[in-house]
Amino acid sequence: MTRIAKLLVAAGLALVAALLVHRPDISAANLADPTFAEDVAPIVYKNCVSCHRTGGIAPFSLVEYDSAAPYLTEIKDAVARGYMPPWHAEGPRHVFKNDRRLSDADKQVILQWLATGAKPGDARKLPPRPTFPTSWAIGTPDAIYSMALDYTVPASGTVEYMHFQVPTNLTEDKWVQAVEIMPGAREAVHHVIVYARVPAAQPATPPASAAPAQPAAAAPAPTPLLIRNRDQERTPPSPPRKDSMFAAPRPMGAIIATTAVGTNVMEFPEGTALRLRPGTILTFQVHYTTHGVAHKDRTSIGFKFARAMPAEEIYVSQFTNGSFMLPAGAKDVAVPAEIGFGQAVKIYGLLPHTHLRGTRWQYTLEKPDGTKETLLDVPRYDFNWQTYYLFNTPLELAPGSKIHSMAWYDNSATNKHNPNPRVDVKWGDQSWEEMQYTGFIYSVPGRVVRPTNRP
């Protein structure tokens, strides 16, 4: 029985149990005639108001009945069709720890509330109003690193990807338990990727009478896990960037954090952590978008550190296909990529990423014996929600395993998001170009964690 089949059976049993015992907190009378205060508010406070609140990214608030009432039609449509809360993967619940879907029971309560007149109920019976952090969602960071200067995002035009180098000046290993990126101008920041690199140690300048000094040893890089990323092997090198002042350094190092609508805070499981090595330099790759008004941005990253060295080190990496071409007008173009692993690994999460022509994704695990199973099926990919699908139970891959990804694109005029169906499209940074990109978080259980070597 495959992993997905087992989960389907478990989910089915859980649903049967739920139907037998009913909802303990909602009486039969309430289910027949629910109110906002007693029945709906507990659901939306738990699932919706992190976005649907004053100051949130959603267009209206669900914290109060009066702010929700003008949008009853929109609420009904969103709940009935299942596109809110935003979750674009298929499959049983309990596979992903960040699954945002409403339970069937909660959907029934909201739809019944709407069908019976959307009554406000007794405001004295509202649950406590949820509170939200005014700054860092991870709590006060142990360390914060920011761009050295504000960057002015123009009111109009195209902004190339900007790159800002930020030294950490660390003198010892730091083990990151949680990380969060905080844009200074959220309206203008489409996404941020933060890279970490340790520059090669430079030899000291010897006195004239002394023998030449030997260069200090650089911090060791982790052993590569990649066996074969078929499409990267035939991808030509990226051309030099035009924005020389804020060009990407070469190399930028490993990805350690990302933020976009739908994903930001990353907390690693107990016993694991991400390493920042002595001398680490961070590079913020920032994609700005213009909105008719100039903005000043100074993006920051905050870290919460683990109390001790972990048993397993967390790594963040990616695999891509950069050699595709989407013909003008083509409606359903499939683009594959794959990655293989030469030793046992744990996979904690997958991030599928395309741009405005991307429509769906599917990931398949191929085991060393050749058998296959679906890991992640995203039939309704939405560029506006960049979701890191985080497994409740990490995937344990044996040596010789492969992950195959397949992304589909619609470059036709029927795609209402298509910037231009009359052109062939290749890999590119901007949203009117395309990507076939997968981020993933992993650890290597058999790898002994040691402090960084120092000269």
Description:
The chain has 455 residues and is an alpha+beta fold. The protein folds into 2 domains: 3-125, no CATH class; 143-199 and 218-443, Jelly Rolls (Sandwich). Helix content is 15%, strand content 28%. The protein has 7 helices and 19 strands. The protein has helices at residues 3-21, 28-32, 36-47, 65-68, 72-81, 104-115, 230-233, and strands spanning 143-146, 151-153, 162-167, 174-182, 189-197, 254-260, 266-267, 272-276, 281-288, 295-297, 300-305, 312-320, 333-340, 345-353, 358-366, 372-378, 389-397, 402-409, 437-443. Strands 1, 4, 7, 8, 11, 12, 14, 17 and 19 form a 9-stranded mixed β-sheet that branches. The protein has a 4-stranded antiparallel β-sheet with strand order 3-9-5-6, with no helix packed on it. A 4-stranded antiparallel β-sheet has the order 13-18-15-16, with no helix packed on it. Strand 15 and strand 16 form a beta hairpin. Helix 3 (36-47) packs across helix 6 (104-115) and helix 5 (72-81) runs antiparallel to helix 6 (104-115). Residues 1-29 and 202-245 have low confidence and may be disordered.
